[in-house]
Amino acid sequence: MALGHENYKELVLRLAITDFKLRYHASVLGYVWAILKPLLLFTILNFVFSSIFNFKNSGTPLYSLELLTALLMFNFFAEGTTAGLASLLSKAQLVTKIYVPRWTIVLASTLNSFFVFLANMFVLVIFFAIYEKVPSIGGVLLFILYIILLYILILSFSFIFSPLYVRFRDLSMIWEVCMQMLMYAAPIVYPLSLIPENLQQIILLNPLAFIIHFAKQGLISDHFAKPLNLAILVISCIAIFIVSIFLFQKNQRKVAENI
Amino acid sequence: MENSTQKPQIAISVKNVSKTFIIPHDKISTLRGAFTSMFNKKDHDVLDALKDISFEIKKGEFFGIIGRNGSGKSTLLKILAGVYAHDTGSIEINGAISPFLELGIGFNPELSGRDNIYLNATVLGLTKKQIDKKFDSIVAFSELERFIDQKLKNYSSGMSVRLAFSVSIHANRDILLMDEVLAVGDVNFQSKCLNEFNKYKEMGKTVILVVHDVGTIQRYCDRAMLLRNGKIEMIGKADEVGNEYIYQNMSDEEKRIKREQEQERIGFEKERIQVEKEAEKLKGKELEEEKKRIENEKIKLEEERKNKVAEITSVEFLDKSGNVKNVFETGEPMGIKVDFKIHREVKLLNFGIGMHSAIGGCIFGYNTQIDKSPVYRNDNFVVLSIDELSLLKGEYFINVTCFGEVAEHVYDFKPKCKILTIYSTGTANKHGGFFLIKHEWKKPLTN
Known about the structure:
By secondary structure, chain A is an all-alpha fold. Chain A has one domain (8-258). Chain A has helices at residues 8-23, 32-52, 63-90, 92-96, 102-130, 137-165, 170-185, 197-205, 207-221, 227-251, 255-258. The longest helix of chain A is centred in the middle third of the chain and has 29 residues, at 102-130. Chain B contains nine helices and 17 strands. In chain B, the strands form four sheets. In chain B, strands 10, 12, 13, 14, 16 and 17 form a six-stranded mixed β-sheet that branches. In chain B, strands 5-6-3-7-8 form a five-stranded mixed β-sheet, with helices on both faces. A three-stranded antiparallel β-sheet of chain B has the order 2-1-4, covered by helices on one side. Chain A binds chain B through residues 1-7, 10-11, 14-15, 18, 21-22, 25-26, 91, 93-100, 167-170, 253-254, 256-257, and chain B through 1-3, 21, 28-32, 34, 78, 81-85, 91, 93-97, 99-102, 105-106, 108, 110-111, 115, 118-119, 122-128, 173.
């Protein structure tokens, strides 16, 4: 139908900016929390794993830097999927009282997490400077590619599950638990090299683990994924994305009735 | 799918649109619920909200949709807006349609008025540039210049409505959908909105209005559609459709009153049976005592009744052919029939009927004594006949009294014994006050 919503870009941005503003509106530190929260988590994990488990001396000298990179990426994934999952329900008014294309709502909600991630990238740069580590151009370019893939995964997840979440509120609980599991199923707090060789391959089958592992490896130790594996990852991410769009278009039709 | 080349004079064309809702008995919102409900086959109802609806709206038309609650009018509006997907049929819309059904969508209490204007206007489809340009005009229309940088949560509800309406009229769409918007705001602001309505009319915009109030439809709309149980009952000139709606309401009201009376009767019956059953439960001496008590009561009541000289047994409204009716139209003939029983010898009886408006004020008070038409003892009913009931729409009730030769000898009095509902159609529906009195406006002959 011709609904005269010519300007989706502005709509998405406006919604995302509003979310971003609202998220920290009543806190003293405001936007600082966007950076502070992952940093605090990092401090705890860094303390636990480098002083107690002492990964630093087991072949990963820049463990803290790896941990921070991985943690920020995982944080992006966790916040993006959580916000994306709840997007249609939390903006129910935009679903039931007006027609805006529903994908704009999902996109805007995940975009908010992307803003937070971008802010965190400044912190990452500062940490790289502190550790006097200069990543290679290739590492940075691949990192950007991995971030794009990560965002595609977030969007795919949100497109598939946000219309379902309207009817099945259990999804948020299930996802919360899954997230805990994923955090330890991916090489975030531990270096992949610590795992037995044959298990490593299984862990890397998980696209999230693959992305996080090779993104931080590329930045920090110039260790890259095999081109074939990377190509498979890119293709499967795009395939998932296309499927998710189809599913979303199908499921969103009745979403207004089910809210 | 804009289609402006084909049939440019048609703004909206709806063909054979149906919509069915599946209503779970207990809304399934957990996976467990979905799982268990797989084994219970019939756990939902199917509601046909719209059945095979087809109509066209021309460009520049003011089109009204009326119908009772649950007739499907809001569903139809939501389908037009794109909020609901229709199951079958096709909808063709030429021109930019306002996609919103409510004012102030996306408003957030934690944001300032300024931010909310930008947010709401973007949601309604304006670009930032357009909003920048219209911003001052939006603020000026809402009369909120001083508060624009305050948070919305500090606004009164009237203030937010003003802001919302102001943004929405600046959204500037060719086709506007409005669902009961006139119900909000104070009187001043309402009249401002109505002015804005007339401006739309002058600009040649298409407006689709969904309201309960027939008056609004008849005042503003060119054409209207009456929906009933998801079907189009009538479509045509707003005045005619409005009248049809009123007639429909009259017969529905009549049915409702009849049903209520029936239920009341059943209620009494049930109560009586209940009392008897309870009496049966008692045994021996207690039973005897109870029986005696009931018997005594009956005798007492009967005596009391007999002691009355006369008694009003029932009061009914009659239409012109003598059938009982409770809902009348302005200008209809009406009879008020009072049945009575005489228990003791009297020379003559007088009856009085007073009618009052439900919102206060006496309409009339007539009695047989003043009208010199007393009732003699062989009769058992009397009818007050009114040729033309010139009452305007509203609720009225009557008191009936029965007395002897002098008004001080009251034999029976039934206060508020019957409620009368009046509907008006056409211009009568737009008048204010209680009565329709013949009137005309005279102008100086020089013109």
